[in-house]
Write a structure and sequence with these properties.
This protein is α+β, with helices and mostly antiparallel strands. It contains 5 helices and 30 strands. It has 4 domains: 126 residues, Tick-borne Encephalitis virus Glycoprotein, domain 1 (Sandwich), CATH 2.60.98; 111 residues, Immunoglobulins (Immunoglobulin-like); 108 residues, Sandwich (Immunoglobulin-like); 57 residues, no CATH class. Strand 28 and strand 29 form a beta hairpin. This is DUF11 domain-containing protein.
């Protein structure tokens, strides 16, 4: 009991002094309308960027006493941290505390006791209407870490785009974990390969540098989201997203497409083929187009290739007619375009392969008689063959010989004699 009394007296003296300092204010401060909050032991509330936590209460008693108090901690988005002890029925302690003419907290009620689940307090909280005394908002992660980044904004196909991020720790205490996460849009890849996540720890006033490079799969303009940084400090995580960036990748982008004028044809019929080559990039390229015949295909007219300089947004097309002399599911091969530009960037583009059904009209008519489902026709034919074989076997079917037991040998001799006289 004496220890608790001495502890309370010590807290009272220390925090009374603290509260007197914190309560210093100008006479002309104008306060906005206050809001009331009920905070149980351990609860916290965010009032206009000030996080107020009910850290502790006076020890519970079996009866009401005049020494009830509440211990508060306050953290602000401006980087401030305060503490206060408030009491509304104890001499020497005030039920009101004001912090830097910005935050005004009053304890309206403090309830402790053995007959309640948890002690609680009712607080009235108001902030100043003046913005002159409010400092510039600095997030904790920016007050702790300094960032400097550089990245490429323009490259050519085949070249790497580089990114550098320098991080400097500006505080004396170490940081156990800082996670850096980068997500690339479609069409960009890390080179060399990476999952885009890096983890670092920092000693006092330590520095780290992250460097990586990316390559583009095709030319174009890429919008890259800002690098996401998460620092774990004092049991909490603090995040920051860096500036987004734009990467322009120059070069030719050669796209090849191949189409037929029919989805299926009959044997020995003709089909028209079109091959289109378009340059969707921003640089011209010399292209060479070549195509090949499918199995059973015979060219009747037109051309299957060509070469020229293809400028951005231009299209080169060839058309030709084929006669298909082989039935079945015929694979139509890819058209191939090889290209090279003035910067000696080169590559090969392919059109998609696909299947062309070539049908024999006679076979189709025979198997489709009486049914539109070819699979059912085949099942019907197989079943008929099996029934015919069964009927032939049944015509030559012989009954099994009767078993005469121990006298069977006499019946065998009788059959031999009978057979002998039938022959003679």
């Amino acid at each position: 009991m004496k220890q608790q009394i001495f502890l309370f007296i010590g807290l009272t003296v220390l925090l009374s002094h603290f509260c007197i300092v914190a309560s210093a204010q100008s006479d002309d401060v104008e306060w906005l309308d206050a809001e009331e909050y009920t905070l149980y032991w351990g609860d916290e509330v965010n009032h206009s960027g000030y996080l107020i936590t009910a850290e502790d209460f006076s020890p519970a008693k079996a009866f009401d006493v005049d020494t009830d108090y509440v211990l508060l901690s306050i953290d602000s988005i401006y980087g401030d941290s305060w503490g206060a002890i408030l009491s509304n029925n104890t001499g020497g302690l005030s039920n009101n505390t004001i912090f830097d003419d910005r935050l005004n907290i009053t304890a309206i009620e403090i309830v402790t006791g053995n007959d309640i689940p948890a002690p609680y307090t009712v607080l009235s909280v108001a902030i100043s209407n003046s913005t002159e005394s409010v400092p510039i908002v600095v997030k904790k992660i920016d007050a702790t870490l300094e960032f400097d980044e550089e990245f490429s904004d323009e490259v050519y196909m085949g070249e790497r785009a580089y990114y550098d991020l320098d991080i400097r720790h500006m505080q004396p205490g170490p940081i156990d974990s800082v996670t850096i996460r980068v997500e690339l849009p479609d069409g960009l890849i890390f080179d060399p390969d990476s999952d885009g996540i890096w983890n670092h720890s920092f000693s006092s006033y330590g520095t780290k540098t992250l460097q990586y490079s990316v390559k583009a799969l095709r030319p174009g303009t890429y919008e890259i989201n800002g690098t996401l940084i998460t620092a774990y400090m004092d049991g909490k995580s603090y995040s920051k997203e860096m500036n987004s960036s734009t990467l322009v990748v120059h070069g030719p982008d050669i796209i090849v497409s191949k189409t037929l004028n029919m989805d299926s044809i009959n044997l020995n019929e003709n089909v028209n083929v079109s091959v289109d080559v378009v340059n969707e990039g921003d640089r011209a390229a010399y292209i060479s187009l070549s195509d090949q015949l499918p199995p059973g295909g015979k060219i009747l007219s037109g051309g299957m290739g060509g070469s020229l300089v293809l400028h951005p947004d231009d299209t080169f097309s060839v058309e030709y007619a084929l006669q298909m002399n082989k039935e079945g599911e015929i694979v139509i091969p890819s058209a191939v375009v090889k290209f090279v530009d003035s910067s000696e960037y080169s590559g090969t583009s392919y059109s998609k392969k696909f299947i062309l059904p070539v049908l024999d009209p006679d076979v189709v008519m025979e198997t489709s008689t009486g049914s539109e489902d070819i699979d059912d026709d085949y099942a019907y034919i197989e079943e008929t063959v099996e029934n015919d074989e069964f009927s032939q076997e049944s015509q030559t079917f012989e009954e099994p010989e009767e078993d005469h037991g121990k006298l069977q040998f006499l019946y065998d001799i009788l059959d031999m004699v009978t057979g002998f006289f039938k022959k003679h």
